[in-house]
Amino acid sequence: MIEIVFLGxxxxxPTEKRNHPSVLLRYEGDYMLFDCGEGTQRQLRIAKIxxxxxxRVFITxxxxxxxxxxxxxxxxxxxxxxEKALEIYGPKGTKKYVSNIMNSFSxxxxxxxxxxxxxxxxxxxxxxxxxxxEIFSCAxxxxxxxxxxxxxxKERRKINLDYVKKYGLVKHPILGRLQxxxxxxxxxxxxxxxxxxxxxxxxxxxYIADTxxxxxxxxxxxxxxxxxxxxxxxxxxxxLAEEYxxxxxxxxxxxxxxxxxxxxxxxHFSQRYGDDLEHLHNEAKKVFPNTKLANDFxxxxxx
Amino acid sequence: MIEIVFLGxxxxxPTEKRNHPSVLLRYEGDYMLFDCGEGTQRQLRIAKIxxxxxxRVFITxxxxxxxxxxxxxxxxxxxxxxEKALEIYGPKGTKKYVSNIMNSFSxxxxxxxxxxxxxxxxxxxxxxxxxxxEIFSCAxxxxxxxxxxxxxxKERRKINLDYVKKYGLVKHPILGRLQxxxxxxxxxxxxxxxxxxxxxxxxxxxYIADTxxxxxxxxxxxxxxxxxxxxxxxxxxxxLAEEYxxxxxxxxxxxxxxxxxxxxxxxHFSQRYGDDLEHLHNEAKKVFPNTKLANDFxxxxxx
Lengths: 303, 303
What we know:
Two copies of one chain form a homodimer.
Chain A: E1 2-8, E2 22-27, E3 30-34, H1 40-46, E4 54-58, H2 64-67, H3 70-79, E5 86-91, H4 94-102, E6 113-118, E7 125-129, E8 133-139, E9 147-153, E10 156-159, H5 161-165, H6 174-179, E11 184-186, E12 189-191, H7 193-196, E13 197-200, E14 204-208, H8 215-221, E15 226-230, H9 238-243, H10 249-258, E16 264-267, H11 278-287, E17 291-293, E18 299-302
Parallel strand pairs in A: 3-4, 4-5, 5-6, 14-15, 15-16, 16-17
Antiparallel strand pairs in A: 1-2, 1-18, 2-3, 7-8, 8-9, 9-14, 10-13, 11-12
Helix pairs in contact in A: 10-11
């Protein structure tokens, strides 16, 4: 099960209802933050998620609104007796910024911070391979080094119940070995993984923060079950989107459509619209009907 | 008129209802922040106070919960076209911390930041003299360099209406000159400021954040109209207060009593009490009856 919690959905300026960007992706025991804007630790508290569970943070870029919550989380983890290392992934400059954050206030650090700088050039690159998932990244087109991320659950085997039933095999520990890809013998019959299991495609969640349009965004989003994408502006402010290297909701919808994504959730709205986001939503839905607007504390479960 | 707005009243860990410490003091055109915990810019937004109006920030010490909101405010001010300098006052180390904050994320700074380090030694020192008020500071007893602040409105002249009325002088621009301390002549009569005006004592507001008890706290709080004081712990956790160099509510009340303060407002409560602060409040009120507990967004006006 993949659970997504939107912790912050504003852009540079927070509003009464929206905090700075941060999205939590939980997959089994792994708690991953995508961006970590100022105030994220309080948003976690309100969402009743312990920051102690977070093991990985992926920073798209080092504009303050995407990263200024890191210091507070690091201080609170230290004060809570954290010992497990925290992994931070981000674009060029991440090592320097993390080091400066650690020297921007006084605290006693009790745990290691492992920083991984991502240098994708013009390609999509794999930045992490875990047992059951991989994280990919690519550069986006913003005014400082910025990356997007894609969480890809690996293909997994599922028992072909109809097939194993033929041999009277139902609910038995030996099925675990078959699911792990072993050939098993049951009552004198060999059952191979090729016949006794089916391969199920893993889920894919892509996270795109600040960027102008670029074809690579469609590549990294390709066939995503869920595409989380910035939509700072509505069409009425298309020029501002271009000037500040951001997306309109309509362009985000086009990316989702061309990538054949299943669902699009927009976030990172300019404060100028306040709660009045209906026109921005409609502009996206015209292009990609399965578009939702994120709110702070919205939760999505992908099964 | 002095207006105080509590922007954050928690201690290190924020809660659902309390953000990290920050208190705004507004006096005529001056907007001064005392401490600036993470999330202060959003609290300002919710309180409908423009960060652009802030001209001075007083940081008691550089634990993250008192200072990690500075970076976000600086970024937002820059993005909003701020040109006026921002003054930051804080204890030893402030120059280094401010410089590291500026390098802990990417932004374009458009305005000057003037940093003033306070080195009070064992005495109370004046850190700022404005036209109508002064700010004093002293070191407090915490585990890193920490200071307290006192805002003192200067004594001001008020027209002695009964006296000037004798000469038939009511509502006339010449009264402005008298109020400014000039001797005036009205219908052949000399009216001196000594007789034509009375001196009114200015208001005093003292802000004490993290500290153990020290006699100097009573000195700096002396005859404050309002003493804002940390009260991390209730008496049941007296040992923790000592271990972490904090005050109990009862000790804060003793400071207010010995300083002959008029009113005490407690803030900076340990998260462990949640909303259950009645016992802490009662322990303080037994010693100093005019004690209130601060909540986020509470406003106080001193006339």
